[in-house]
Amino acid sequence: MKKELDHIGIAVRDLEESINFYKNVLSGVLLDRYRSEDKGVESEVAIMEVSGNRIELLLPTNNTTSPIARFIKQKGKGVHHIAYRVDNLDNAIKDLEMKKIRVMEETLRINKHGRRLIYLNPADTEGTIIEYCDYPNMN
Asked: TM segments (predicted)?
């Protein structure tokens, strides 16, 4: 099954400062900015594009329930996850199951851009948070 890098999620403490860094230092472009209060997300997101690559800057909006807040408390700011685009998320999940790689069922959702996503269990990925995603309405 083909997997292609979709984006990298970066946990940040100051969204304005991070946007300015990506714009002024890396010549990035701010594509979108939105707030998600969905359970398990609770963050403000800035989508940046740098030389054709997508970066999601993630600022927690709830310091008690946001997984981004927990990540920052445990590991500090920085790379939170790497997302891989797959052709069909349902088939990719079945493939993972056959390979004994667990997914975190509670993370399955569709974001505001129509991206359907799920996170793999970091216990099965050498500790790296990996997202699989597809864009079913864009095919």
From this structure: none
pTM: 0.91
* 116 or 42: which leads in pLDDT: 116
Q: What is the pLDDT of residues 108-135, one digit of tens each?
A: 999 888 999 999 999 999 999 999 999 9
| Helix/strand/coil for 97 | helix
Asked if residue 68 has pLDDT above 80, the reply is yes
The partner residues of 36 in beta bridges, in order of sequence, read 43
Domains of the chain (ranges; CATH) run 3-138 (3.10.180.10)
Q: Among candidates 97, 99, 107, 110, which has minimal Cα distance to 130?
A: 107
57 and 10 in contact (C-beta within 8 Å)?
yes
CA-CA distance, 133 to 116, in Å (whole number)? 5
Q: Is the dihedral of CA 40, 78, 117, 20 positive or negative?
A: positive
